[in-house]
Design brief:
- The chain is built from 5 helices and 11 strands, in the order ααββββαααβββββββ.
- By secondary structure, it is an alpha+beta fold.
- The chain has a single domain, classed as Clam (outer membrane lipoprotein receptor (LolB), chain A).
- β9 and β10 form a beta hairpin.
């Protein structure tokens, strides 16, 4: 090879290997991530006020005590709203309208009407509807395990001291934040080594992962694994969120759940906003799963 050509090739090779690699995105500290998540929730949850969704929830599982498999399809209205007549606590409400394609014998969109008109006994009516809806699921279902906002609620700053956190991997600016409920703790909330009460008494201690945007704290996916009475895992709940362009807010698109021998997939569509006859400004308080 001619000397001049060898020099050209050598120079080009040096240039290739000397190009500095792109700077890696700086991963924030754990404290920064928790603050960004809490700040995001404090602005995001009020924007969900008065938004209702249609939930199509398919469940499959074995009937207890037999090998028979049962399939169930539920269609419901789902809302995250201020608890009527209460202390402005945010709660999830589900009103089952159909089971296996058969309409139930109650007024259509009764939950929507209840919150829009806010009668004097709204609190009692809403609680009755919420309790009633759990009974339509396959056996073993709980309000916590079937709540798409369950893990998001636990990221609120009110609940963070009851959890242990650690940072996971970053993939395309999305950070995995892993958490585990404390069974006992040191000096948290003034307690010193005492047994902490369950955050979710109906399903047991919770652990899982939250996937969020590194910069904004915006939550795109959650996974919760709940164990009760010493069982390894008794129920799971995984929810994905996406931006609704029309309403300009992140909303659940799909939830996958398991409890016992039952598995389910809930899909959310037909998001719409309804008006409430009040001039009050919603105030964010800790979410109650």
């Amino acid at each position: 090879m001619p000397t001049c050509l060898r020099r050209l090739v050598t120079t080009a090779a040096i240039g290739i290997f000397c190009v500095p690699p792109p700077l890696a995105a700086q991963t924030p500290s754990l404290d920064e991530v928790l603050k960004r998540a809490a700040d995001y929730i404090s602005t995001w949850v009020p924007r969900l006020a008065n938004i209702v969704s249609t939930e199509a929830y398919a469940q499959t599982g074995r009937v207890p005590g037999s090998t028979a498999t049962r399939r169930l399809r539920l269609k419901s209205d789902v809302l995250l709203v201020r608890y009527p007549g209460g202390d402005l606590t945010w709660m999830l409400f589900r009103d089952v309208a159909e089971t296996n394609g058969k309409p139930l014998a109650h007024a259509p969109e009764r939950l929507l009407t209840l919150f829009a008109e806010a009668p004097a006994d709204a609190k009692e009516q809403a609680q009755r509807i919420a309790t009633e809806s759990v009974h339509y699921h396959l056996p073993g279902a709980t309000a916590s395990a079937t709540n798409p906002f369950l893990v998001v609620a636990l990221m609120h700053e009110f609940y963070q001291p009851s959890l242990r956190f650690r940072l996971g991997d970053v993939d395309r600016n999305t950070l995995a934040l892993r958490f585990e409920e404390r069974a006992e703790t040191g000096p948290v909330d003034g307690r010193n080594g005492e047994r902490l009460p369950l955050l979710l008494p109906d399903v047991g201690r919770v652990r899982g992962t939250v996937w969020l945007d590194v910069e904004t704290g915006r939550i795109v996916k959650t996974e919760g694994r709940m164990s009760l009475y010493g069982l390894a895992v008794s129920s799971t709940s995984t929810t994905t969120f996406a931006l609704d362009q029309r309403l300009a807010v992140m909303l659940p698109t799909e939830m996958h759940t398991t409890w016992g021998a039952v598995s389910g997939t809930a899909k959310y569509s037909n998001y719409r906003r309804f008006n409430v006859g009040t001039t009050e400004t919603p105030i964010l308080k800790p979410l109650r799963p």
